[in-house]
Design brief:
With 486 residues, the protein is of the alpha+beta class. It is 16% helix and 38% strand. The chain starts with a strand and ends with a helix. The relative contact order is 0.08.
């Protein structure tokens, strides 16, 4: 479920774009300004609004660390702002002085691309703010751009209706002509990378004047070459779709339309989850927060709505057994009834009932004294059984651990979606986080891995560019919904 938590009404013209970065949120408008807010309470920062562009501002995007904000305008410039002081750090004049309609920063903040109304592209070295390459597509206007999660390629979209993939030398790697009839309006890469064998795969969403939202796969073959295929066509909106964005874990996809609606999809299964109808005019902008379960939507009604995505699930923790009198009710709970709970959600009473079923009732007192619930049960080792629970019998310890391993095996085979399991522990995640390789892990597991594995990715074995871990709120909510509906 979603709930509207606030509406920002500070702009005096159409809201054209919005972007999150950590605890910051930025918007830009046809009123020539950008505004920056603190996401804790959505109060405007002291130096906001940012004024410097001579005409309307079409797009804005944060650097990876949130230290800089880039914006582009009809005034033919892309400006770089400090989010610490609000000062202009650089003014990048587009080659040919054509109005700049789109700008995008690479995930590693090494490059910035700007696209203009005359079909030209400029690739900038972001740290030095120097122009590196230029390119062009004739007889069109560049209106969409997104970098791949690896930062090595980027996709552009134009009013001609084509999607084009480029490398950092401005070589065209692939052209998908007629991707959207009457023109592309926005495109965005999913944040994750799928790899296997000789193929690396990306996902891309695009939308256009044809009222469609499309999901594509882009396969990169290790020997060389790219192949782009249409995976899903989403028809949840009845008018041109103007904006689209993935959540930070790639599980949700949002779009905004001329029909005034916002649609939120399960991106993996292409299933419509929510339709939001609070805007009074065209929805021109949308984005997810990377660090909290928030969604922002901007409109030609001059407002920005901030939504909270709720999982709607409650904790299932039970009460511990205060004395033997409660044991009867726990024992009477059938195995089938308790199995509706994941082992990690078992209460201390559930664990006691399980011990009885497995003929291990002699351990109940020790387990009660140490407050062993489902989570603690799954983490038991030979060492903890001997040193902390003081179970002296080697045979009893071995039997208990075999039973625990059977529980873990049953959990994996009980229909848990694979994406809910930590790739390291293969257990259901409780605090999923996104690592620099784009994959989600249980926080404790990836922390331990990073501390002992020299910062390599558990999935790709490639070095992690950063050890920063981002909470995966969307995945946590999805797991919560799945647990509730079991």
């Amino acid at each position: 479920m979603t709930s509207l938590i606030c509406t920002l009404q500070d702009h005096r013209d159409d809201v054209n774009w919005c972007a999150f970065a950590g605890n910051l949120f930025a918007t830009c408008s046809g009123d020539k300004t950008l505004r920056i807010y603190n996401t804790r309470d959505f109060s405007e920062l002291p130096f906001s609004p940012l004024s410097g562009h001579g005409y309307g501002v079409h797009c804005c995007c944060f650097s990876a660390c949130g230290q800089f904000l880039a914006s582009c305008s009809t005034d033919a410039t892309t400006m770089v702002w400090s989010t610490v002081t609000g000062e202009i750090e650089a003014i990048l004049e587009h080659p040919g002085r054509s109005p700049v309609r789109i700008c995008a920063l690479s995930p590693d903040s090494a490059h910035l691309v700007s696209g203009a109304s005359d079909g030209t592209l400029a690739l900038w070295d972001f740290p030095s703010k120097q122009l590196r390459r230029t390119g062009a597509v004739r007889d069109t206007t560049m209106v969409a751009c997104s970098f791949s999660p690896c930062s090595q390629v980027f996709m552009t979209g134009s009013t001609y209706g084509d999607l084009r993939l480029w490398d950092l030398d401005m070589n065209q790697l692939h052209a998908e002509k007629n991707a959207h009839d009457l023109g592309v309006t926005c495109c965005t890469f999913a944040p994750s990378i799928l790899s296997g064998g000789q193929v690396v795969q990306f996902r891309l969403a695009s939308c256009g004047q044809d009222s469609l939202l499309k999901i594509w796969t882009i396969n990169k073959f290790i020997p060389g070459g790219y192949k782009m295929q249409l995976l899903h066509t989403l028809t949840g909106q009845s008018a041109p779709v103007l904006s689209c964005a993935y959540s930070s874990d790639g599980q949700l996809l949002v779009s905004g339309s001329v029909d005034k609606t916002v649609t939120v999809y399960d991106a993996k299964n292409a299933v419509l989850l929510y339709t939001l109808k609070q805007h009074e005019r065209y929805v021109t902008a949308c984005c997810f927060s990377p660090t909290s379960p928030l969604l922002a939507t901007g409109s030609m009604d001059k407002t920005v709505n901030i939504w909270r995505l709720e999982d709607g699930c409650s904790d299932r923790g039970g009460k511990s057994l205060p004395d033997g009198s409660d044991l009867t009710s726990s024992e009477e709970r059938t195995s089938a009834g308790r199995s509706k709970l994941l082992v990690g959600d078992w209460s201390e009473g559930d664990v006691s009932a399980w011990l009885v079923e497995e003929g291990l009732e002699g351990l109940m007192d020790k387990f009660r004294a140490n407050n062993i619930d489902g989570t603690e049960l799954l983490s038991l080792t030979k060492e903890t059984l001997a040193s902390e629970l003081h179970i002296e019998s080697v045979g009893l310890r071995s039997k208990l651990l075999r039973k625990v391993e059977e529980l873990k095996s049953d959990s994996v085979c009980s229909g848990i979606p694979d994406e809910f399991l930590c790739p390291i522990t293969r257990e259901l995640m409780r605090e999923p986080v996104i690592a620099a390789d784009g994959y989600s892990y249980e926080r404790e597991a990836i922390d331990s891995w990073i501390n002992s594995k020299n910062r390599s990715s558990p999935m790709t074995n490639l070095p992690l560019l950063t050890t920063l871990l981002t909470p995966n709120h969307t995945l946590k909510m999805a797991i919560g919904r799945w647990k509730t509906n079991r």
